[in-house]
Amino acid sequence: MSRKKLSALQKHYRENGCTPRSHGNSGRVVPHHLSYDDNTRVKHFISNYAETYAILLPGRIPRFKRDDIKLLPSCETKGNVWRKYKQAMELSGKNKSTLSKNLSSDCLFPLGFHARVVAQTAFRKIWNVVCPFVVCCKPMLDVCWQCKKNNSLLYKSANLPDAEKQDRCKRQQEHLANVALERSFYRELVKGSKETAEQQGVMHLGLNNPCSRPVEMHYSFDFAQQMHFPSDPMQPGPIYFLRPRKLGILGVHCEGVTQQVNYLVDESVVISKGSSAVISFVHHFFRQYGLGESNAHLHCDNCSGQNKNRFRLWYLLWRCSCGLHRSIQLHFMVVGHTACSSSGTVAHK
């Protein structure tokens, strides 16, 4: 051991006692070999790029609790954004007319500007730390069509009169306010169900007599994307042209005890996602796993063929008429913003 290392150990022992030492760079995610200006330029580029191409999608991306998520198109990847960043850095000293043909003016650096080009690995690390709210859209992500149309109108309103600009902004703000109102109502129901379950001492789903507890409980249900089996991402030759067997998944989530029952439905049993199938699954859930509440709140999406139809309303009315529930309230999420506990849990499982 060198004298310098021995002195450092003695100094650490005198100041901190017999505790393990930690390196000064441990826990740092942003590459420390880059200067502050390099990190700042990457941050500004990603922010400007998102302002130009991304759409706002509040509360729709799992693992994010921010109000506004900027969602890039599905054709964009972090590697693609890095290549455009690199191209902008390399072309920054050339003629402006040449630059305008390659990149948007919102993503360019000043003319004659020369700086270090950050590698792709460091670019991704900086992105994850300083701009985690900018997310690349996955191919099967459910995007709100109303948000898409409103944002497209906002992008094309550069040369329009101020009155029309204000009208388009107001239309988008009203839509987002409606989404936030419905989301807050959903969260209040979830919070109330958890408090009721704690007061009643209910810890898990199980067999309970219908309408045996004079309390309110909240449930949400949703269909997940169909699974195919056998499933092999490599697609070997013998099964390349074969049609896989389909497996439907419906999840019913009880918000009070935060437990969910997933129904795995083979295509030999039912191949459609109509109202009859949904009613059968929900009826079986209440009969086998219900908590015996007298008043129920149900949250689902606006699909007219499954949930928002007369057959579903007749079924809920029949439950109340037979004394299985005293009251049932059916709530619908805003179209395109239908993420709830059942859809998120099914997607992860």
Automatic annotation (TrEMBL):
It comes from Patiria miniata (Bat star). It holds the Pfam family DUF7869. Signal peptide: none annotated. Residues 250-338 form the DUF7869 domain. This is DUF7869 domain-containing protein. Residues 1-29 are annotated as: Disordered.
